Amino acid sequence: METALEDNSHAGQGPVLLDIGGDIGALIVTMPAALAGQEIEIRPVAAASSGSEHRHEPEHRHDHSHEHGHSHEHGHLIHVGVVGRPIAGELVHSAVFAELSEGRYELYVRPDGPVTLTETVRGGEVTLADWPLVDGAGWAG
Protein backbone atom coordinates (compact mmCIF):
# COMPACT_ATOMS: atom_id res chain seq x y z
CA MET A 1 0.00 0.00 0.00
CA GLU A 2 1.39 3.39 -0.98
CA THR A 3 1.21 6.21 1.54
CA ALA A 4 0.68 9.75 0.31
CA LEU A 5 2.69 12.42 2.06
CA GLU A 6 0.66 15.42 3.13
CA ASP A 7 2.03 18.93 3.23
CA ASN A 8 1.59 20.36 6.70
CA SER A 9 2.23 24.05 6.18
CA HIS A 10 1.55 24.71 9.87
CA ALA A 11 4.15 22.25 11.21
CA GLY A 12 6.43 23.83 13.78
CA GLN A 13 4.53 27.13 13.96
CA GLY A 14 2.90 26.60 17.34
CA PRO A 15 4.16 25.97 20.85
CA VAL A 16 7.27 23.86 21.31
CA LEU A 17 7.68 21.27 24.06
CA LEU A 18 11.06 21.49 25.77
CA ASP A 19 12.09 18.31 27.58
CA ILE A 20 15.06 19.43 29.68
CA GLY A 21 16.71 18.32 32.90
CA GLY A 22 19.87 16.62 34.07
CA ASP A 23 22.47 17.20 31.35
CA ILE A 24 19.84 18.06 28.69
CA GLY A 25 19.12 21.70 27.87
CA ALA A 26 17.51 23.66 25.04
CA LEU A 27 18.53 26.53 22.77
CA ILE A 28 16.15 29.12 21.33
CA VAL A 29 17.62 31.48 18.74
CA THR A 30 15.73 34.61 17.66
CA MET A 31 16.21 34.85 13.90
CA PRO A 32 15.86 37.60 11.28
CA ALA A 33 12.63 37.31 9.27
CA ALA A 34 14.80 37.18 6.11
CA LEU A 35 15.80 33.63 7.11
CA ALA A 36 12.20 32.32 7.36
CA GLY A 37 12.05 28.84 5.84
CA GLN A 38 15.83 28.30 5.97
CA GLU A 39 17.24 25.41 7.98
CA ILE A 40 19.76 25.96 10.74
CA GLU A 41 22.11 23.11 11.62
CA ILE A 42 23.87 22.72 14.95
CA ARG A 43 26.94 20.70 15.81
CA PRO A 44 29.00 20.24 18.95
CA VAL A 45 32.22 22.26 18.79
CA ALA A 46 34.21 19.06 19.55
CA ALA A 47 32.64 17.31 16.53
CA ALA A 48 33.49 20.24 14.30
CA SER A 49 37.19 20.06 15.17
CA SER A 50 37.40 16.25 15.03
CA GLY A 51 35.61 15.87 11.69
CA SER A 52 33.58 12.99 13.18
CA GLU A 53 30.13 14.43 12.54
CA HIS A 54 27.79 12.97 9.93
CA ARG A 55 25.93 15.41 7.74
CA HIS A 56 22.42 14.61 6.59
CA GLU A 57 22.10 13.84 2.93
CA PRO A 58 20.34 16.65 0.99
CA GLU A 59 17.25 14.51 0.38
CA HIS A 60 16.83 13.71 4.09
CA ARG A 61 13.88 15.76 5.36
CA HIS A 62 12.57 16.42 8.85
CA ASP A 63 9.04 17.54 9.52
CA HIS A 64 10.48 19.93 12.14
CA SER A 65 8.38 18.54 14.92
CA HIS A 66 10.04 16.71 17.76
CA GLU A 67 8.71 13.30 16.72
CA HIS A 68 10.23 12.63 13.34
CA GLY A 69 10.90 8.93 13.49
CA HIS A 70 14.50 8.68 14.60
CA SER A 71 16.90 9.76 17.28
CA HIS A 72 19.88 11.99 16.68
CA GLU A 73 21.98 9.94 19.10
CA HIS A 74 23.56 8.04 16.19
CA GLY A 75 25.78 10.90 15.04
CA HIS A 76 23.48 12.87 12.75
CA LEU A 77 23.60 16.62 13.10
CA ILE A 78 20.38 18.27 14.19
CA HIS A 79 18.72 20.89 12.00
CA VAL A 80 15.53 22.88 12.42
CA GLY A 81 13.58 25.30 10.29
CA VAL A 82 13.36 29.02 10.95
CA VAL A 83 9.70 29.59 11.77
CA GLY A 84 7.63 32.66 12.63
CA ARG A 85 5.73 32.16 15.88
CA PRO A 86 3.17 34.53 17.41
CA ILE A 87 4.53 35.94 20.67
CA ALA A 88 2.76 38.76 22.54
CA GLY A 89 0.93 39.90 19.41
CA GLU A 90 4.04 39.90 17.19
CA LEU A 91 5.45 37.38 14.74
CA VAL A 92 8.90 36.39 16.04
CA HIS A 93 11.12 34.17 13.88
CA SER A 94 13.13 31.58 15.75
CA ALA A 95 15.02 28.30 15.58
CA VAL A 96 14.29 26.01 18.52
CA PHE A 97 16.60 23.16 19.48
CA ALA A 98 14.47 21.39 22.08
CA GLU A 99 16.85 18.75 23.50
CA LEU A 100 20.61 19.22 23.48
CA SER A 101 23.27 17.62 25.63
CA GLU A 102 25.17 20.11 27.72
CA GLY A 103 28.07 21.59 25.75
CA ARG A 104 29.27 24.20 23.28
CA TYR A 105 27.67 24.31 19.82
CA GLU A 106 28.21 25.95 16.43
CA LEU A 107 25.24 26.96 14.27
CA TYR A 108 25.07 27.73 10.56
CA VAL A 109 22.62 27.86 7.67
CA ARG A 110 22.35 24.48 5.93
CA PRO A 111 23.79 22.88 3.99
CA ASP A 112 27.26 24.29 4.55
CA GLY A 113 27.07 27.96 5.46
CA PRO A 114 29.82 29.46 7.58
CA VAL A 115 29.49 29.13 11.35
CA THR A 116 27.46 32.19 12.32
CA LEU A 117 26.82 31.63 16.01
CA THR A 118 28.49 29.70 18.83
CA GLU A 119 26.58 29.10 22.09
CA THR A 120 26.96 27.12 25.30
CA VAL A 121 24.02 24.98 26.44
CA ARG A 122 23.73 23.99 30.09
CA GLY A 123 21.74 21.03 31.33
CA GLY A 124 18.36 21.86 32.82
CA GLU A 125 18.35 25.36 31.29
CA VAL A 126 16.99 27.13 28.23
CA THR A 127 19.65 29.24 26.53
CA LEU A 128 18.39 32.27 24.59
CA ALA A 129 20.45 33.78 21.77
CA ASP A 130 20.09 36.21 18.88
CA TRP A 131 21.30 35.34 15.38
CA PRO A 132 23.80 38.02 14.29
CA LEU A 133 22.97 40.24 11.32
CA VAL A 134 25.83 39.14 9.08
CA ASP A 135 24.96 41.10 5.91
CA GLY A 136 22.31 43.35 7.36
CA ALA A 137 19.59 40.73 6.89
CA GLY A 138 20.98 37.69 8.72
CA TRP A 139 22.14 35.84 5.64
CA ALA A 140 25.70 34.60 5.82
CA GLY A 141 26.14 33.44 2.28
Structure overview:
- By secondary structure, this protein is mainly beta.
- The chain has a domain at 24-56 and 75-127: Immunoglobulin-like (Sandwich).
- It is 4% helix and 36% strand.
- The chain has one helix and eight strands.
- The chain has one helix at 45-50; strands at residues 24-30, 39-44, 78-81, 83-87, 90-101, 103-109, 117-121, 126-130.
- Strands 4-5-1-8 form a four-stranded mixed sheet, with no helix packed on it. Strands 3-2-6-7 form a four-stranded antiparallel sheet.
- The chain starts with 23 loop residues before the first strand and ends in an 11-residue tail after the last strand.
Cα radius of gyration in angstroms: 15 Å
What integer is the average pLDDT? 78
- CATH third-tier fold name of one domain: Immunoglobulin-like
Strand content: 35-45%
